[in-house]
Amino acid sequence: MILRAFRHVVAVSAVLIALTGPAHAAPKPGAHALDDVRILSADNMEGRGVGTPGGAKARAYIVKRFGEIGLRPQGQAFERPFTFKPRFGREVAGVNLVARIEGTSSSDKVLVVSAHYDHLGVRKGQVYNGADDNASGIAGLLAVAEAFRARPPRHTVLIVAFDAEESGLRGAKAFVADPPVPLASMGLNVNFDMISKNAKGELYVSGAGPQPYLKPVLEGVAKAAPVKLRLGHDTDAQGKENNWTAQSDQGAFAEKGVPWVYFGVEDHPEYHQPTDDFATVPQDFFKRSVATVVTATRALDDDLDGISRAAGR
Question: Rounded to 10 degrees, what is the CA torsion of 171, 100, 195, 143?
């Protein structure tokens, strides 16, 4: 356990150096995270509503970043279109983005790392920019992709940007209904949704409550994390509203029996408000949050075979 904690300290320190190091240093994982949030939450993205020009513009930006990182698509193209019909209204077209990074081991287990890029769009003339929800999660996703491109993962990793999360996890549900790899091969879903903003400097990681085999890895990461990484929000002990299991895209994986981990902050005054702008993001906390999720995802990749065995997969 001491050795594991030391590894996590070294890993977190390396990511922090990458995020805060000298300007002349080569770009490192997470170096573009602030720019990713700023660009995705700009007014010209029009709130990134599903099926809107703003959503398409955000998607084009993410595809561009995939190319800059050197990612390859899972299949013929990054785009995986889907449709859904809301309770009221016409059928809506959404598009998930899926990239693949090959692992170095012979394991057949796949790690799915995800975040949603859509938000609420424009309502009554006001743009809901969604800097924290969820431009921040996409920035974390891209930082993880950069880290795994710089040093390949042990297991094959799918980097997935979901659409239509705000419409009821529609993109994630479409993904697990028609998966690009067999569901049985998915050892774990790691999902990021709102990782940039908390007055107490706290980031939560959910999943260890209902899946106790995850606890040793997550506690090891928490001991060395540069933010206050707290485990919780994954049972009904404090009321169903405090159980986040189904409150973001990891819920679609949980329904299919795929193990999951979710990183996010508690609700804040800007949540689902037009004030969720880049200017309200505490940059130091966000950088440390990105460093934390990068290190945590690496640790989960390292232990994925053990996690899969413990989960009976």
Answer: -150
- CB atoms under 10 Å from CB of 198, counted, come to 22
**pLDDT tens-digit series, residues 137-147:** 999 999 999 99
CATH of the domain at 50: 3.40.630.10
**Parent domain of 101:** 2-310
Report the chain's mean pLDDT, rounded to a whole number.
Answer: 92
Distance set, CA 181 to CA 34, 74, 204 (Å): 32, 9, 29
- Which CA distances in Å does 228 have to 190, 243, 285, 289? 19, 19, 10, 9
List of long-range contacts for 23-29, beta carbons under 8 Å, 24+ apart: 27/146, 28/146, 28/150, 29/143, 29/144, 29/146, 29/147, 29/150, 29/294
Q: For residues 180 and 233, what is the distance between their CA atoms, to the nearest angstrom?
A: 30
Mean pLDDT across 225-253 = 93
Per-residue pLDDT at 127: 98
Q: What is the DSSP string of 159-176?
A: EEEES-GGGTSHHHHHHH
Distance CA 222, CA 207 (A): 14
Verdict on whether the full-model pTM lies above 0.85: yes
Lowest mean pLDDT among 13-17, 175-179, 197-201: 13-17
* Chain centre to alpha carbon of residue 268: 19
> How many domains, the chain?
1
pLDDT digits (tens, 9 = 90+) for 204-236: 999 999 999 999 999 999 999 999 999 999 998
Residue 75 is which amino acid? G
CA dihedral sign, ordered 272, 277, 280, 286: positive
